[in-house]
Amino acid sequence: MLKSHYTPTILEAGLDEVGRGCLAGPVVAAAVILPSDYRHPVLTDSKQLSHRQRNKLQVDIRRDAIAWAIAEVSPADIDKVNILKASFLAMHRATDALSVRPEHLLVDGNRFTPYPMVPHTCIIKGDSLYLSIAAASVLAKTYRDELMEQLGLTYPAYGWAQNVGYPTAYHRAAIREHGTTPHHRLSFRLL
Asked: How far is the C-alpha of 117 from the C-alpha of 29, rounded, in Å?
């Protein structure tokens, strides 16, 4: 079972992002503040869960969280600043959007641009260790998957409902055949 807190006496927000390795679509981040004694029997890293489990969990997380927020950085902005900086920017935007100000940030990964006036701790594989980071990974993943499915209705040739913008052989073949869309990251190696 994942840990419910890093430090039990302060308000912690878990942060995670999704979509860094994609060729298309925004990078999306979520910030989630859970009660310090929170427990959930299924919640873990979104990559370890089925589509159905993630969709059910997002309902639980939104209901149970003290606060949560989701933010994105566009492909055009990713091209301007690079994907790493865009990931941190998305996490900052998600933190900005929280209705409650956290006292500490738990960040999935090994690097982070400090958020003003709030200390942080980077935790490698944090989404499989801490519930708040896992919750953020679920919210970011379900939001981005749904967004890419909707974009796929306008651009059906790219298979985004299945590949959500990741560099599959099908996606790369579609780029070769149809070119890029406004949702492609032009600074990435697309072919």
From this structure: 20
DSSP 12-48: EEEEEEE-TT-SBS-EEEEEEE--TT---SS---GGG
Q: What is the DSSP letter of 117?
A: T
The β-bridge relationship of strands 27-33 and 12-18 is antiparallel
Place of tokens 């039990």: 8
DSSP state at residue 104: E
User: For 8-67, how does the pLDDT look when each residue is reduced to its tens digit (9 = 90+)?
Assistant: 999 999 999 999 999 999 999 999 999 999 999 999 999 999 999 999 999 999 999 999
pTM of the model: 0.97
Q: Are 15 and 68 in contact (CB under 8 A)?
A: no
Name the token pair of 165: 């913008």
